[in-house]
TrEMBL record:
<dbReference type="InterPro" id="IPR027417">
    <property type="entry name" value="P-loop_NTPase"/>
</dbReference>
<keyword id="KW-0378">Hydrolase</keyword>
<keyword id="KW-0547">Nucleotide-binding</keyword>
<dbReference type="Pfam" id="PF13361">
    <property type="entry name" value="UvrD_C"/>
</dbReference>
<protein>
    <recommendedName>
        <fullName>DNA 3'-5' helicase</fullName>
        <ecNumber>5.6.2.4</ecNumber>
    </recommendedName>
</protein>
<dbReference type="InterPro" id="IPR014017">
    <property type="entry name" value="DNA_helicase_UvrD-like_C"/>
</dbReference>
<dbReference type="InterPro" id="IPR035093">
    <property type="entry name" value="RelE/ParE_toxin_dom_sf"/>
</dbReference>
<keyword id="KW-0347">Helicase</keyword>
<dbReference type="InterPro" id="IPR014016">
    <property type="entry name" value="UvrD-like_ATP-bd"/>
</dbReference>
<keyword id="KW-0413">Isomerase</keyword>
<dbReference type="InterPro" id="IPR000212">
    <property type="entry name" value="DNA_helicase_UvrD/REP"/>
</dbReference>
<feature type="binding site">
    <location>
        <begin position="283"/>
        <end position="290"/>
    </location>
    <ligand>
        <name>ATP</name>
    </ligand>
</feature>
<keyword id="KW-0067">ATP-binding</keyword>
<feature type="domain" description="UvrD-like helicase ATP-binding">
    <location>
        <begin position="262"/>
        <end position="575"/>
    </location>
</feature>
<dbReference type="Pfam" id="PF00580">
    <property type="entry name" value="UvrD-helicase"/>
</dbReference>
Length: 768
């Protein structure tokens, strides 16, 4: 790398999204020359060696010498503010100046650049069709693309322009007749144009694309200041190069690091939004919710006054995810960002609070199965036969603890939404009494559940908040936020723990978690920022945030573009939810949808394979793994419905000489091999290739779920929804390839995918 040097004051060099992708394809020596070029250029663009000159007849496009053979193409935004858009061999630079199309998009207000000649040559010279895997016997064939009819014949030039399609590309867009050509064009086109075209191609109407793709990134007034190219560059996916390592990192990390640099304009907007209170971001799997949460944390930290405290909390659902957030935040913001942030999963936070209040009282954590056992025991000992242990266990978990009900009086008032059976006042009194006995029983045995801890932590934090607020009220106008340092009984300073709280995987937190978090930061601007997708809720924690003091109304945003999953996988995964879309809430009592959820990534179609029995299914799994022999094993995972199957698959792989690592509560056990885990373990993860095995009726959903069908239809519906979401989560972890296997009868959730003539064709296409 080049020696350190201070860039000249007033010189700005920016890199346009996609220029980095072009650079990375060049020879290593040329890439090295680009690194040196940017270093020197930022010091003095006018140094003689660059031979900086305007392209003939062009107002804004300049070329500069990178080495003997290669030239950088730069847009001069104003003064010494330069945007690097391309690096080309010198013989191509002046070949045909009409090839360069650039301008400010009239709808989005962003700078755009495209080399029309490359599009003409690479895309319209009819590239050979992309290879597709052989269609397995159970797979539904796709409708043909309709060979010679122009793909966008139904849309006028004016409509395309209104949607923000780059106008110089319109004549070429008119020539597209196949999906391969379209995907080729999307590769080179400005990002927004690609998104619009793919949505239209997916069958969205003009209005849908306007609402879902264009409006969220359109300039509010559609009125552009005549010629403000610097502003326009800040609206584009472009990055200011501030140091030598930055450009090297962008180029070398390639696609893996793009999330750090090139946010989608909508992601960027959500990250930077100044909010007057709690904000919620939703979006389908892989749309970058976690990425937005991480950038949001960095954004908040960057705005903090200097100090050594940690006024930002970043929290998520479980330990693995918290570990991952820490690693990614470090990579995004470096140790200086990490130093101002507490990263803990919610139960860890709750435990910390409870321990702090009651040090030395460590109890044994028990899970829901043990809780049920304890309930059964209690009812036997009490000779109580009016109530059934499962009902009481659920009531205790979901209503009493789940909603952090603190007193008998509160229990009389609480809404028992989704609990099916209604209960009278006197029954509530009985249940409350039994619940008290149950809690004492656990206490005596030195046992506790996560939910109990969360509920206690919520109570403790609410108590602490009341004290802070009471003191604050007593103070005079002097007492700003930073002055709320009031001593507690112990003499320690009492203040809000955090100023900002950012929550990932918000759909799975319980009411008690929310109450705890709410009490930890003062209500006000930028207090709570939460991201989540209720379609991925896999624990039974439905909440209405408004009733828990977290008011998100009017402050929500939605991401729709998947960066992880290909269109083909997304289409199959989305069809798992077909017919039940209306059952998903927005965390605040209203509905949430996946409308507009799309991908612009392209890959092979998922493979669906049935076997006569488990033994034969395991052979299919091994077969598929062998087919992926060229993919690093750690980028491949097998997801199954039960722990027994984890063991079975592991043994079969071992017999075939394939190393595997089980994903446990603490992450994968071992550094090498294919990851195997139950569906719950895959929350928030991502793999290049995935096999979902055991997707059979009886396992997905597990057969015991249907016992609720007659006795408790509400619960039956909830359990089915959860099982569906679990499969949906699992299927959307795959980036490039997905294979689903089963033995015997396939799961009812994938039925539509494997029976030709069912609604799958229509609905699945809608979700592409
Ligand atoms: N702007 C971006 N540029 C490049 N890659 C991105 C961008 N945003 C997200 N990604 C990538 O997309 C993938 C999914 O992102 P992320 O995990 O944030 O999605 P999510 O919405 O939280 O997903 P899920 O709900 O499934 O957990 C990651 O690999 C991430 O790096």
């Amino acid at each position: 790398m080049t020696s350190p040097a201070t860039p000249a004051a007033g010189v700005t060099l920016r890199l346009l999204d996609k220029a980095d992708k072009e650079i990375v394809k060049l020879d290593r020596a040329i890439v090295g020359a680009v690194y040196k070029f940017q270093h020197d250029f930022r010091r003095n663009p006018r140094a003689g060696g660059f031979d900086l000159k305007q392209l003939k007849g062009d107002g804004r496009l300049w070329s500069a010498r990178v080495n003997r053979e290669y030239r950088a193409l730069l847009l001069r935004l104003g003064g010494d503010d330069w945007l690097l858009v391309s690096v080309k061999h010198r013989k191509h630079v002046h070949e045909n100046l009409e090839r360069y199309a650039y301008g400010i998009n009239q709808v989005t207000g962003a700078v755009e650049y495209v080399d029309l000649q490359i599009v003409r040559e690479d895309v319209l010279r009819q590239a050979p069709p992309l290879p597709q895997p052989a269609v397995p016997p159970t797979e539904v064939p796709e409708a043909s693309a309709g060979a010679e009819v122009p793909l966008f014949a139904d849309f006028t030039d004016e409509q395309l322009a209104d949607l923000g399609v780059a106008e110089p590309l319109v004549p070429l867009i008119r020539k597209l007749t196949t999906d391969d050509e379209l995907l080729g064009l999307v590769e080179y086109a400005p990002r927004h144009t690609g998104e619009v075209l793919l949505h239209l191609r997916d069958g969205c109407s003009f209005q849908q694309v306007m609402d879902q793709v264009t409006e969220p990134v359109a300039l509010p007034e559609r009125a552009l200041p005549a010629d403000d190219w610097q502003q326009a560059a800040s609206r584009a996916q472009a990055v200011v190069i501030t140091d030598d390592e930055q450009i090297q990192r962008i180029i070398e990390e390639g696609d893996f690091g793009r999330w750090k640099t090139f946010l989608h304009p909508l992601q960027e907007k959500l990250v930077r939004r100044v909010t007057s209170g709690a904000t919620r971001i939703s979006g389908g799997p892989g749309t970058g919710k976690t990425i937005v949460a991480l950038h949001r944390v960095k954004h908040l930290v960057d705005r903090l006054p200097p100090g050594h405290t940690k006024p930002v909390l970043l929290t998520t659902f479980n330990k693995n995810l918290a570990v991952d957030l820490r690693a990614r935040l470090l990579s995004l913001g470096g140790p200086q960002t990490l130093a101002r942030v507490d990263i803990l999963h919610v139960d860890q936070m709750a435990t910390r609070i409870v321990r702090e209040a009651d040090p030395g009282n460590a109890k044994r954590r028990i899970d829901d199965t043990q809780v049920l056992r304890e309930w059964r025991q209690l009812l036997v000992e009490a000779g109580e036969s009016r109530w059934d242990a499962e009902f009481l266990s659920d009531e205790w978990n979901q209503v009493i603890l789940g909603q952090a009900v603190n007193s008998r009086a509160d229990y009389f008032r609480v809404r028992r939404a989704g609990r099916g059976r209604s209960i009278s006042r006197s029954e509530r009194a009985e249940i409350w009494q039994l619940a008290e006995r149950f809690t004492q029983r656990l206490d005596l045995q030195g046992m506790e559940t996560h939910r109990q801890v969360a509920e206690r932590a919520a109570r403790l934090e609410i108590g602490r908040k009341s004290k802070i607020d009471a003191r604050q009220e007593q103070r005079d106008a002097r007492s700003g936020l930073d002055n709320i340092h009031v001593e507690s009984g112990s003499g320690a300073w009492l203040r809000y723990r955090y100023r900002h709280i950012v929550v990932d995987e918000a759909q799975d937190l319980s009411a008690a978690h929310w109450k705890m978090l709410r009490a930890m930061a003062p209500t006000g601007p930028d207090d709570i920022f939460l991201v989540g997708d209720t379609h991925q809720r896999i624990y039974d924690n439905q909440v209405t945030l408004g009733s828990l003091g977290i008011n998100i109304r009017g402050r929500s945003g939605r991401l729709t573009l998947s960066y992880r999953t290909t269109r083909e996988i997304l289409r199959y995964a989305s069809s798992i939810l077909d017919g039940v879309e209306q059952d998903y809430d927005d965390l605040n009592g209203d509905r949430d949808t996946l409308d507009g959820y799309r991908s612009i990534l392209h890959g092979s179609r998922p493979v669906l394979r049935g076997a006569v029995d488990r033994n034969a299914e395991l052979d299919l799994v091994v077969d598929q793994l062998q087919g992926w022999h060229d993919i690093p094993r750690e980028s491949v995972a097998i997801c199954v419905p039960t722990n027994e199957m984890v063991a079975e698959v592991g043994q079969r792989l071992a017999r075939r000489g394939i190393v595997s690592a089980e994903i446990t509560r603490d992450g994968p056990q071992g550094d090498e091999g294919v990851h195997i885990g139950t569906m719950y373990r895959f929350k928030g993860l991502e793999y290049r290739c995935m096999i979902l095995a055991g997707v059979s009726e009886g396992l997905v959903p597990r057969s015991s779920v249907d016992t609720w069908e007659r006795t408790d239809p509400a619960r039956h519906r909830r359990e089915l929804q959860r099982a569906r979401s679990l499969l949906f989560v699992a299927a959307t972890r795959a980036r490039d390839a997905l294979t689903i296997t089963w033995s015997g009868e396939p799961s009812r959730f994938i039925g539509p995918l494997i029976q030709p003539g069912t609604p799958c064709g229509a609905t699945a296409r809608d979700h592409r």
